[in-house]
Amino acid sequence: MDFDFVCWSCGADCSVYGKPVGFWTERYQLPAEWECWNCDAINITPDDDD
Ligand SMILES: [Zn+2]
Question: How many Å lie between the centroid of ligand 1 and the Cα of residue 13?
Answer without folding.
Answer: 8
